[in-house]
Amino acid sequence: MDWIKEVETALVNCDAMVLVMTPSSCASENVTDEWHYYLEEKKPIFLILLDPCQRPFRLRKLQYANFVQKTFDDAFHDLLKGLQTPVTK
Description:
89 residues
């Protein structure tokens, strides 16, 4: 299986992305390519801040579920609320 082709197929076929932000994911070139594609295609990205890290500049305007500073239940509620928001294309 061609991993890059499979990721590309998934990105094209999915309507939204849940991006878990950690120091590793924010430093990953592959992850950066994936969320850049979603921004260019104007597809919604739902952010989860799982570990303390600096959010990439282009993602700073997006709201996120903060699992670092909030309780798990509160952050999970924020995520569910965001996922239930109607998305317009």
